[in-house]
Specification:
The protein has a single domain, classed as Response regulator (Rossmann fold, 3-Layer(aba) Sandwich). 43% of the residues lie in helices and 20% in strands. Helix 2 packs parallel to helix 3. The protein has 121 residues and is α/β, with parallel strands linked by helices. Strands 2-1-3-4-5 form a five-stranded parallel sheet, sandwiched between helices. The longest helix is centred in the C-terminal third of the chain and has 15 residues. It contains five helices and five strands, in the order E-H-E-H-E-H-E-H-E-H.
């Protein structure tokens, strides 16, 4: 079981992703914006961060950069998600480990999450 933080400003996305990950045995916490995601990651060690790119406070890119530069969470894998197609072309410039375009199939989510978790083990 992995501890996963999901940060997204869309409540429906939070609930759907969290429920699917819980069904696969993971412990899930969530944040509605980038600032709360950073706050939670400073307080808790996670096995994976799933970050929406465009959200209030700090963007997923900013949260990713902050997390990857921290001593505590620098090795934590980051999955970026976005409904904006242009993000698919530029996410590789960030320090993120993977990207999924919304809407995504839950099977695709689980496959990506499991791959990232195996890489961090």
């Amino acid at each position: 079981m992995a501890k996963i933080l999901i940060a997204d400003d869309e409540p429906d996305v939070l609930l759907i992703v969290a429920e699917r990950l819980r069904r696969n045995g993971h412990e899930v916490e969530y944040a509605p914006d980038g600032n709360q995601a950073i706050q939670k990651s400073e307080q808790t060690t996670y096995n994976l961060l799933i970050l929406d790119i465009r959200m209030p406070g700090r963007t997923g890119y900013e949260v990713c950069a902050y997390t990857k530069s921290s001593e505590k969470n620098g090795k934590t894998p980051v999955l970026l998600i976005s409904a904006y197609p242009e993000e698919q072309r530029v996410w590789r410039q960030s320090k993120a480990d993977a990207f999924l375009a919304k809407p995504f199939e839950t099977g695709q989510l689980i496959t990506t999450v499991e791959r990232l978790l195996k890489g961090s083990a």
